[in-house]
Design goal:
nine-stranded mixed beta sheet; 18% strand; alpha/beta; globular; Rossmann fold; 8 helices
Length: 341
């Protein structure tokens, strides 16, 4: 129910709250926030005891990663995940899954999530620090939001963020005007794409029998959801903004696979690489996000680094912990520090 925390589909300790967002051309629009809170009786021993984490999923996706949430709560943070409008828990009958015509519209979803986290944008400043975590398209959305909302964020963690078009910035610049025209005339036109389901297969292949991948295939289909002209144009506009430089005023950590693979046919290489993005291009684009950016390349990682095989996930969590604890161990100075002589 809207405004109330109720049991989530993931089971305890996860809860969810529906966030009403009004209506659009397809009817009622909502987002859904999911939370898992740290054990309060051990908070004073934990390095992230004063941290709230807000996670946003990628395209054709939703939040289901219990293990990732536990990483944060075990270190004292309160973990929140947002299923954006028309995704996952927020998808309503008759809606076009994932469709949006302007990524800034998600400001409404994020603002509603922050209010549910008791940290509204217009409210009194909170003593708890905010860490944004985004995967793929969620990483693009949060990067753009962070740049528009300075002085609110302590750190940004991006898991294979979709910061550049797969066919290069030059191709993006050539395609954007055509898509802009198509968007004005036929925003719901479907854009051809080839997805043979190999990325979903790779995720299943790397899981142990004792650790199966448990997802709702209606919310996260084996083959990606249909891509529409208006949505793709919105993404390319976001890519162009990243290319021009965002100047996020918080440190940024970007976790990427060490290599990409083109999924033309099935091979074991797809279980040890990013088969969605060109990771070298993403690494370069990441440097446009902020003045403090760490790019961490992880051998054997999939597109969602934290859905890789167990040993790769262990390495990813180790590197994430190393960066987060180091980054948040000290606070920014409240006054200019004297120059060293």
């Amino acid at each position: 129910m809207a405004g109330e925390w109720v049991a989530d589909i993931l089971g305890a300790p996860f809860e969810q709250q529906t966030l009403p967002l009004g209506e659009d051309f397809e009817g009622e629009v909502v987002a859904t926030i999911v939370r898992s809170q740290a054990h309060r009786h051990v908070l004073h021993h934990q390095p992230l005891a004063d941290v709230d984490v807000l996670y946003v999923h990628g395209w054709s996706d939703y939040f289901f990663q219990r293990e990732f949430a536990t990483f944060w709560t075990d270190r004292g943070a309160d973990f929140y995940a947002l299923d954006l409008r028309k995704y996952g828990r927020s998808l309503r009958p008759g809606q076009t899954p994932g469709y949006i015509a302007d990524l800034t519209t998600y400001d409404e979803d994020i603002s509603a999530a922050l209010e549910a986290m008791n940290r509204p944008l217009a409210g009194e400043p909170t003593m708890r620090r905010l860490v944004l975590v985004g995967h793929s398209t969620g990483g693009l959305i949060l990067s753009l939001w962070a740049a528009r909302h300075p002085r609110l964020i302590s750190a940004v963690v991006l898991n294979s963020p979709w910061l550049e078009f797969q066919l290069s910035g030059t191709t993006r610049a050539a395609v954007s005007p055509l898509l802009s025209l198509e968007t004005r005339l036929r925003p719901m036109e479907t854009i051809p794409q080839v997805d043979l389901g190999y990325y979903a297969r790779a995720q299943r292949e790397v899981r142990n029998a004792e650790d199966p991948l448990d997802v709702n295939l209606e919310w996260r289909p084996e083959q990606s959801m249909a891509v529409h002209a208006g949505w793709l144009h919105a993404v390319l506009v976001g890519h162009a903004r990243v290319a021009s430089g965002l100047a996020i005023d918080a440190p940024v950590c970007v976790l990427l696979s060490a290599k990409s693979a083109i999924p033309r046919r099935w091979s074991e290489d797809l279980t040890r690489s990013d088969s969605v993005l060109v990771v070298d291009d993403i690494a370069r684009a990441s440097l446009k996000l902020a003045s403090s950016v760490t790019v961490d390349r992880i051998a054997g990682a999939l597109h969602d680094v934290f859905l890789s095989r167990a040993d790769v996930r262990d390495e990813a969590y180790y590197r994430l912990e190393r960066w987060v604890i180091g980054c948040l161990a000290t606070r920014a100075p409240v006054a200019p520090r004297p120059r060293f002589r």
